[in-house]
Design brief:
- By secondary structure, the protein is an alpha/beta fold.
- The protein has a single domain, classed as 3-Layer(aba) Sandwich (Rossmann fold).
- The chain contains nine helices and eight strands.
- It has an eight-stranded mixed beta sheet with strand order 2-5-4-3-1-6-7-8.
- Helix 8 links the parallel strand 6 (178-184) and strand 7.
- The protein is globular and about 50 Å long.
């Protein structure tokens, strides 16, 4: 039977989140003057906190502030590659590296499923030798300009399970024909964790730790 090992990325494989650090990294590399707009980021976060905007809009606004409404992929690529190198060098849980290697050795297909943007996640996934990436997409013009607009669903919460299922359908993978392991640090991934055959709570948030205790899910610490 085919086996999939599906990993969340931010704070599961990585020690910290990557989205805002990537925007700051790209702003510094491409348009340092945009760092003057950083004080506006807490305002967008506040708007999200009081439910004036959703997570999708939050991402779009912050990308527009720190990178711009549209940027050619060729211009963004050097910043993406440098950021991926930095993440792999300084921001990966040691236990994640061991588990990824163990799943690879067991013949499992490695899938990185994250709410972060595909345009920089793919570079990180490539360095970690994942087989596939399921991530939040960006609208890209015919001229290969990456726009500050989400293409489709933001890959978070229940949407992550829907996007995983859509990917499986596209790949011709039948649910009943595979055994699935799912790794995550956050309770927002509970739909995918309940759907998986094996759910592993990694360095779990308080909410996920509580749910894992109720569901009997394994809890692991990848921080060392």
């Amino acid at each position: 039977m085919t086996e999939l090992a599906i990993y969340d990325m931010d704070r599961t494989v990585t020690r910290t989140g990557t989205y805002t650090p990537f925007l700051l990294h790209a702003a510094k590399a491409l348009n340092p003057w945009r760092l003057a707009l950083v004080p506006l980021v807490p305002l967008t976060m506040a708007a999200y906190a009081v439910k004036l905007i959703d997570r999708r809009r939050l991402k779009e606004w912050n990308q527009r502030l720190l990178i711009g409404s549209g940027i050619p992929r060729a211009r963004l690529t050097p910043a993406v590659e440098a950021f991926a190198d930095l993440i792999v060098k300084t921001n990966i849980h040691p236990g994640a590296l061991r588990q990824i290697e163990a799943d690879r050795a067991a013949g499992r297909r490695l899938v990185l499923a994250t709410a972060s943007y595909r345009f920089y996640v793919e570079a990180i996934a490539g360095r970690l030798k994942f087989d596939d990436v399921i991530a939040t997409g960006s609208i890209t013009g015919l001229d290969d300009i990456i726009h500050a607009k989400v293409d489709g669903e933001n890959n978070y919460g229940p949407a992550k399970l829907r996007l995983i299922q859509a990917w499986m359908e596209k790949e011709g993978i039948q649910r009943e024909a595979v055994k699935i392991r799912f790794y995550s640090d956050h309770v927002s991934d509970w739909p995918a964790m309940e759907w998986a055959d094996t759910a592993i709570a990694v360095n779990p948030s308080k909410g996920l730790r509580h749910m894992a205790a109720k569901r009997g899910w394994e809890v692991v610490d990848w921080g060392f």
